[in-house]
Amino acid sequence: MAIHPTAIIADGARIADDVEIGAYSIIGAHVSIGSGTWVGPHVVIEGHTSIGKNNRIFQFCSLGATPQDKKYAGEPTRLEIGDNNTVREFCTFNIGTAQDGGVTRVGNDNWIMAYVHLAHDCQVGNNTIFANNATLAGHVHIGDWVILGGFTSVHQFCHIGPHAMTAFSSAVAQDVPPYVMAHGNRAVPSGINAEGLKRRGFSSEQIRNIRNAYKSLYRKGLSFEEAKAEIIADAAAGKDELALFVDFFATAGRGIIR
């Protein structure tokens, strides 16, 4: 291990042999860090926190601190971070609470820029991009391939579906369906993330089907229940890319942005 002599590693911490830890960083007793991970200087990693392989964690991050929740009473809740994530300067990720699943979770291959805050019990998927100062309140769920514009704020318990995207300074107070772009305070829908889907290999037919689902939700004057039934029927008819909508409808709880 390439651990700077000024770093403080508590007894009990489990750190792979090739992990690098920078000057003045502090690693708590219940922390595990996987192979190939680099931790910069002045980083604090505490709580029951597990970090996977090949992550890059930049200076002044605070990972695994107790949640900003008055109900928290010292329960051994957790923070779990997967593999191949980049976490830039001044990010804060909190552990979970007993009132939810007890874990804040970040998946794999995420690109998380400076000053991002992940509150307790957030669930972040894979291949996301969070621009500077994006902030998630407690219990937020973020799907795979989501992009959050800088200074995006997400209200507690909101879900943002896979492949969705928010613009700069969006204030998200309701659920954002898969593939949908959102902007504004409060955030409203503004089309589908067609360019992102092209870059990820979606065919023209798949994008057309997604665009038609968007029209059902937002352009045909249907109620939400009517639009949902239409999209579910199309998914059942073999338009597999719409399955993400079906899964989203089953778990979303705050109503979708309209």
Notable characteristics:
9-stranded parallel beta sheet, alpha/beta, 28 strands, 258 residues, 11-stranded mixed beta sheet
Beta percentage is 25-35%
Shape: elongated
SS field, number of helical segments = 4
Q: Report the radius of gyration as a whole number of Å.
A: 20 Å
Mean model confidence by pLDDT: 97
Widest sheet: strand ordering: 1-4-7-10-13-16-19-22-25-27-28
Unreliable parts: none
The major beta sheet can be summarized as: 11 strands, mixed
- What class would the helix/strand composition place it in? alpha/beta
Question: What this model shows, in words?
Answer:
The protein is elongated and about 65 Å long. It is built from four helices and 28 strands. By secondary structure, the chain is α/β, with parallel strands linked by helices. Helix 3 crosses helix 4 (243-251). A hairpin with a 4-residue loop joins strand 27 and strand 28.
In short:
With 258 residues, the protein is an alpha/beta fold.
Give the arrangement of secondary structure elements.
Elements: E1 2-3, E2 8-9, E3 14-15, E4 20-21, E5 26-27, E6 31-33, E7 38-39, E8 44-45, E9 48-51, E10 56-57, E11 62-65, E12 78-81, E13 86-87, E14 92-94, E15 103-106, E16 111-112, E17 117-118, E18 123-124, E19 129-130, E20 135-136, E21 141-142, E22 147-148, E23 153-154, E24 159-160, E25 165-166, E26 171-172, E27 180-183, E28 188-192, H1 194-199, H2 204-218, H3 224-236, H4 243-251
Parallel strand pairs: 1-4, 2-5, 3-6, 4-7, 5-8, 6-9, 7-10, 8-11, 9-12, 10-13, 11-14, 12-15, 13-16, 14-17, 15-18, 16-19, 17-20, 18-21, 19-22, 20-23, 21-24, 22-25, 23-26, 25-27
Antiparallel strand pairs: 27-28
Helix pairs in contact: 3-4
